[in-house]
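Reviewers asked in the last cycle whether our approach scales beyond single polypeptides. To address this, we selected a multi-component target totalling 1084 residues and predicted its structure end to end. The input consisted of the following lines:
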Amino acid sequence: MNRPEHSSRLIPIPDVQSEHDDRHLAIDQVGIRGLKHPLLFADGGARPQPTVAQCSLYVALPAEQKGTHMSRLVALVEERAAASTPLTVVNFRTLVDEMVARLGAPAGSIELQFPFFVRKTAPVSGVASLLDYDVTLKGELADGRYTETLRVAVPVMSLCPCSKEISDYGAHNQRSLITLTVRTHAPIALAELLRFAEEEASAELYGLLKRADEKYITEYAYDHPRFVEDLVRGVAGRLAAEPRVAAFAVEAENFESIHNHSAYARIARGL
Amino acid sequence: MNRPEHSSRLIPIPDVQSEHDDRHLAIDQVGIRGLKHPLLFADGGARPQPTVAQCSLYVALPAEQKGTHMSRLVALVEERAAASTPLTVVNFRTLVDEMVARLGAPAGSIELQFPFFVRKTAPVSGVASLLDYDVTLKGELADGRYTETLRVAVPVMSLCPCSKEISDYGAHNQRSLITLTVRTHAPIALAELLRFAEEEASAELYGLLKRADEKYITEYAYDHPRFVEDLVRGVAGRLAAEPRVAAFAVEAENFESIHNHSAYARIARGL
Amino acid sequence: MNRPEHSSRLIPIPDVQSEHDDRHLAIDQVGIRGLKHPLLFADGGARPQPTVAQCSLYVALPAEQKGTHMSRLVALVEERAAASTPLTVVNFRTLVDEMVARLGAPAGSIELQFPFFVRKTAPVSGVASLLDYDVTLKGELADGRYTETLRVAVPVMSLCPCSKEISDYGAHNQRSLITLTVRTHAPIALAELLRFAEEEASAELYGLLKRADEKYITEYAYDHPRFVEDLVRGVAGRLAAEPRVAAFAVEAENFESIHNHSAYARIARGL
Amino acid sequence: MNRPEHSSRLIPIPDVQSEHDDRHLAIDQVGIRGLKHPLLFADGGARPQPTVAQCSLYVALPAEQKGTHMSRLVALVEERAAASTPLTVVNFRTLVDEMVARLGAPAGSIELQFPFFVRKTAPVSGVASLLDYDVTLKGELADGRYTETLRVAVPVMSLCPCSKEISDYGAHNQRSLITLTVRTHAPIALAELLRFAEEEASAELYGLLKRADEKYITEYAYDHPRFVEDLVRGVAGRLAAEPRVAAFAVEAENFESIHNHSAYARIARGL
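The resulting structure, written as structure tokens, was:
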């Protein structure tokens, strides 16, 4: 699937990908998907953190070109990961620019998905621990216009307002996943963005909790019941009021503790 | 998460979902996701086949309404599955209509994902066996307009033209997945649609093959090398020429046998 | 990967699998994995239900034999699924016997994994709906001895006793999965087996619930707090007291609503 | 789910987990599962590499004790990850020892699963790139005896000897996964262990290949056809001859390019 820039052999190897294609069909996206690679990522001004990313790199291919040069896409990931500067939401664009330039492509996009960790402090005991969030960073260059989309999936607790209201005691609750997808006018740190979700949930999650924390969170959640509808409305209201956010989608999925299926809701503005 | 139409108790239970919400935020989609249910599906004029579907049902929720009535969505699936007529791509619309009507919703969508089986005959020995295809049926009603999208993921073999061309013998090949997503002017049977992918691949797959079949397929694939780019171009050309197809997207993913990542390509027209 | 019993061609095709292997290494298991196939399954005396199974079929291979005949394993699944009698935990053995006989193998095993549905009635409203359970049926024949293992994964609710005890109100709860793996002296219906898990949980789950049911379940769960330790102890106690059960393992996984990880426990006796 | 060693409040919070349980049922394993955490791992004498692990930590619980202290397990992961010395297959035992000591447990086990990367050099062009391997490290302490199990899943290419033999040209091939699980008398580096699988396959995989490499690998694979049976026999022979290996299991799964299911084989000695 590869075409070397310089053949390492005396007898030339045919370059099938560079041949002509006469079907008159341009390809929107062609490239590699699911390449796992270690990566150094820095969020806002925070200390860089090593992580492992699933990388997808695609370019547009003109109608007359038979194939793209997949190996250049892998080489690009290798080089970027070897560089000393960590990847950020700000310098991510240069990677997309570089790809499109090297491949001589009319357009292209890169998508990196990786676990992102935030050190959190338990609400009463103050013990610290990491919580993991699934992040997807997508940069797209088309018609000379660059679009970057940032996605973070935030695990939270939701407690059912109906269950609380109709029951003499207790209320069913469960783990939920709130996913924020945003395009921005100005950079927002992931650590800031995910707080929109945590603050609008019935309660936020922690890796490590002491008993006093568990009491606090249990009561806090009971005091903050939220339907799946409330989760997306709460976060959507926050994102709509944030001047740095240009467009967004908010999704929430409740892994219902009384059913074997999920409750789900979504609000999108401009995405 | 539920509100019964008629309370089964003398003391009325509060209906929290029907309360007023004053955040002025309409919800694009709210409902249930990941409900597993057995289902009878009939493709074109073929004999109905029992399968198991993952069901997602969503409605739009006006800004002033606090919550939707999730239990009605589950009830709808139960009733449909209990009906004697199998589900088809033609009668699917009535299910979406019924949902939107029952929920009094301005819009709504249903997505059903299920394994679909086709009995295939091995090319030389003629032995028959089933092959499984992952199908997703999506119906959406918005502004009085109904849109149905049909997706089928077709496992095939791809053999690399570059590897064949540059090597003195052999050629690397692998399993690939070609995914067709279409909107139609007139119904197309799934069994017809998936042939577009199988006929454009290096070779099609079978559950059961005898040695004579294996020889045939090995040589056939070697005679029909296809890049991931060729797969999507071949299928896109077929779909573009098919008058019943209104819009489409074709994706191909090669689970490369020489790498631990995939090659991927996509062509979309109108989707 | 196949060797036909009768070649369909005049010129004989070499049978590589039947050649001699001189590495003196017997193979414990060789066969096919992940074959998807529709299947009719009947639980105890209940009406047969169509489902879709993931099938794995393996045989032992003597040291001197180069390869097995994979296509015979696929053919066996095709034939069994085409038969009019539904598969049961009782007649499953004949399928394993048949496989070992046809392949002339010293030993073999079959594993079928499929969604299994039970119609449940909501506790107050009495509305009926299906709930899905993941079932794995494994039959193994070795040294003339047949062993059958039945596994069912039961989704339930667990409510934390510590959270309830230490909090002034409320208690965190979540969906849990209790997995029962059993070997029996005499057949037990799946529908009976999974009740052990549902009755020992804080609450059982339903597809469809009305508000009166939701109130009932919420309060019931609050009245029946269970640690992950309690779940496995409760079920283990029931299985240990059941004369038809010869050996068992019980696992429970709580998808904690206050953490982004699970709590897990396991008790095994004889497995 | 937690019990703090020292309550951070004046009014004592009940310690439910430390209460007495009178069901007389000891628990084999209880703890946490699926905790994601960044980790520094060093293989043999190689430079430490940052990765992200899925962590499971379990202890045995005596019959009379109601519950374990889950938060101590999370704290242990936090502390270990914060330490400056990277984790190795040699010092892993101290983590298991520490867990069992801190929890006052009669037995316990830790399982860490993480992507592990090896820099590989393409066979002709010499270009370097990383390849990812899924590694699972399991340490178990019971009855004062420590057992460590190392598992590495190695993606390779397999080319079907039957297809090659019976076909006039070409041979179907595909990506395969060879999984080695070993217990050792003396430490073996992962980078050494996975070579057993790569050297016994039809060909090994690379992240980055130039055209000359692709030609080399295509022809190499054609010259080294391997059944799934050959893969496990080849690796089993190597492991059986390796004095540092005390017990092993080898599994191979071929994601067949002519079927939509896998071929699978397994040889175990002492596991």
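Chain D has one domain: 16-269. We regard this as preliminary and will revisit it once experimental data from Aim 1 are available.
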